[in-house]
Protein backbone atom coordinates (compact mmCIF):
# COMPACT_ATOMS: atom_id res chain seq x y z
CA UNK A 1 0.00 0.00 0.00
CA UNK A 2 1.55 3.28 -1.06
CA UNK A 3 1.53 6.23 1.35
CA UNK A 4 -1.21 8.77 0.77
CA UNK A 5 0.16 12.25 0.05
CA UNK A 6 -1.58 15.56 -0.40
CA UNK A 7 -0.93 19.28 -0.53
CA UNK A 8 -1.89 21.90 1.99
CA UNK A 9 -3.85 23.67 -0.77
CA UNK A 10 -6.06 20.55 -1.15
CA UNK A 11 -7.23 20.62 2.48
CA UNK A 12 -10.80 21.61 3.37
CA UNK A 13 -11.03 25.12 4.89
CA UNK A 14 -11.67 23.87 8.45
CA UNK A 15 -8.44 21.83 8.45
CA UNK A 16 -6.48 24.72 6.92
CA UNK A 17 -7.74 26.87 9.80
CA UNK A 18 -6.48 24.28 12.33
CA UNK A 19 -3.05 24.15 10.71
CA UNK A 20 -2.85 27.94 10.49
CA UNK A 21 -3.89 28.32 14.11
CA UNK A 22 -0.87 26.49 15.51
CA UNK A 23 0.27 29.59 17.38
CA UNK A 24 0.69 29.37 21.16
CA UNK A 25 -2.43 30.01 23.23
CA UNK A 26 -2.68 33.40 24.98
CA UNK A 27 -1.38 33.45 28.54
CA UNK A 28 -4.44 35.13 30.04
CA UNK A 29 -7.83 33.50 30.36
CA UNK A 30 -11.20 35.24 30.64
CA UNK A 31 -12.64 35.80 34.08
CA UNK A 32 -15.21 33.32 35.35
CA UNK A 33 -18.66 34.24 36.72
CA UNK A 34 -17.22 35.43 40.04
CA UNK A 35 -14.93 37.88 38.23
CA UNK A 36 -11.75 36.06 39.30
CA UNK A 37 -9.28 35.41 36.54
CA UNK A 38 -8.41 31.73 36.06
CA UNK A 39 -4.76 30.71 35.77
CA UNK A 40 -3.62 29.80 32.24
CA UNK A 41 -3.69 26.14 31.28
CA UNK A 42 -0.32 24.47 31.21
CA UNK A 43 0.75 23.58 27.74
CA UNK A 44 1.40 19.88 27.21
CA UNK A 45 4.96 18.91 26.44
CA UNK A 46 6.30 15.78 24.77
CA UNK A 47 7.30 12.86 26.97
CA UNK A 48 10.82 11.38 26.70
CA UNK A 49 9.92 9.00 23.86
CA UNK A 50 8.15 11.70 21.84
CA UNK A 51 11.02 14.13 22.40
CA UNK A 52 13.52 11.49 21.27
CA UNK A 53 11.51 10.87 18.10
CA UNK A 54 11.49 14.61 17.38
CA UNK A 55 15.25 14.80 17.88
CA UNK A 56 16.32 11.50 16.25
CA UNK A 57 13.87 11.17 13.35
CA UNK A 58 12.19 14.48 12.56
CA UNK A 59 15.26 16.52 13.47
CA UNK A 60 17.30 14.84 10.74
CA UNK A 61 14.85 15.58 7.94
CA UNK A 62 15.64 18.55 5.72
CA UNK A 63 12.28 18.74 3.90
CA UNK A 64 10.25 20.06 6.84
CA UNK A 65 8.74 23.54 7.07
CA UNK A 66 7.29 23.11 10.55
CA UNK A 67 6.85 20.51 13.27
CA UNK A 68 4.20 20.86 15.97
CA UNK A 69 3.55 18.72 19.03
CA UNK A 70 -0.16 17.82 19.21
CA UNK A 71 -0.80 20.53 16.61
CA UNK A 72 -4.30 19.51 15.51
CA UNK A 73 -7.24 17.53 16.82
CA UNK A 74 -9.34 15.65 14.31
CA UNK A 75 -13.05 15.09 14.91
CA UNK A 76 -14.15 11.78 13.48
CA UNK A 77 -17.55 10.61 12.27
CA UNK A 78 -18.06 8.33 15.28
CA UNK A 79 -17.88 11.37 17.61
CA UNK A 80 -14.38 10.63 18.89
CA UNK A 81 -11.46 13.00 18.61
CA UNK A 82 -7.89 12.11 17.79
CA UNK A 83 -4.77 14.22 18.37
CA UNK A 84 -1.59 12.86 16.74
CA UNK A 85 1.68 13.36 18.63
CA UNK A 86 3.50 15.25 15.86
CA UNK A 87 2.04 17.20 12.94
CA UNK A 88 4.57 17.95 10.22
CA UNK A 89 4.25 20.27 7.22
CA UNK A 90 6.73 19.55 4.44
CA UNK A 91 8.26 21.82 1.81
CA UNK A 92 5.82 20.31 -0.72
CA UNK A 93 2.85 21.53 1.43
CA UNK A 94 2.04 18.01 2.58
CA UNK A 95 0.83 17.24 6.07
CA UNK A 96 2.07 14.22 7.97
CA UNK A 97 0.73 13.01 11.30
CA UNK A 98 3.10 10.92 13.43
CA UNK A 99 1.99 8.80 16.38
CA UNK A 100 4.88 7.78 18.64
CA UNK A 101 4.80 4.83 21.05
CA UNK A 102 7.37 3.19 23.26
CA UNK A 103 8.17 -0.50 23.09
CA UNK A 104 6.19 -1.33 26.23
CA UNK A 105 2.64 -2.21 25.11
CA UNK A 106 -0.08 -0.84 27.37
CA UNK A 107 -3.86 -0.98 27.08
CA UNK A 108 -3.81 2.68 26.04
CA UNK A 109 -1.63 1.76 23.07
CA UNK A 110 -4.39 -0.47 21.70
CA UNK A 111 -6.93 2.37 22.04
CA UNK A 112 -4.50 4.76 20.34
CA UNK A 113 -4.03 2.30 17.46
CA UNK A 114 -7.79 2.06 16.94
CA UNK A 115 -8.13 5.86 16.87
CA UNK A 116 -5.08 6.12 14.57
CA UNK A 117 -6.54 3.59 12.12
CA UNK A 118 -9.95 5.30 12.16
CA UNK A 119 -8.37 8.71 11.47
CA UNK A 120 -6.31 7.19 8.67
CA UNK A 121 -9.50 5.93 7.02
CA UNK A 122 -11.41 9.20 7.46
CA UNK A 123 -8.55 11.52 6.43
CA UNK A 124 -6.81 9.70 3.56
CA UNK A 125 -5.09 12.84 2.22
CA UNK A 126 -2.82 12.94 5.28
CA UNK A 127 0.35 10.83 5.37
CA UNK A 128 0.09 8.74 8.56
CA UNK A 129 3.14 7.37 10.40
CA UNK A 130 2.98 4.95 13.35
CA UNK A 131 6.42 5.01 14.99
CA UNK A 132 7.39 2.53 17.67
CA UNK A 133 10.63 2.64 19.62
CA UNK A 134 12.57 -0.62 19.64
CA UNK A 135 15.93 -1.57 21.08
CA UNK A 136 17.50 -1.02 17.67
CA UNK A 137 15.89 2.34 16.93
CA UNK A 138 12.51 3.21 15.41
CA UNK A 139 10.15 0.89 13.57
Please tell me about this protein's structure:
The chain contains 3 helices and 7 strands. It has 139 residues and is of the alpha+beta class. It has a domain at 45-138. It has a 5-stranded mixed sheet. It has a two-stranded antiparallel ribbon with strand order 2-3. A hairpin with a 2-residue loop joins strand 6 and strand 7 (137-138). The chain is globular, with a radius of gyration of 17 Å. The model has no long low-confidence stretch (mean pLDDT 80).
The level of helicity is 10-25%
What fraction of residues sit in β-strands? 15-25%
Distance between the termini: 17 Å
Number of strands: 7
What does the average pLDDT come to?
A: 80
Instruction: Pick out the low-confidence regions.
Output: none
**Tally of separate helices:** 3
The structure class reads alpha+beta
Strand order, biggest sheet? 1-4-5-6-7
Describe the global form.
Answer: globular
| Rg (CA only) | 17 Å
Helix and strand sequence: HHEEEEEHEE
Largest sheet: 5 strands, mixed
Short characterization:
This protein is α+β, with helices and mostly antiparallel strands and 139 residues long. It is 24% helix and 23% strand.
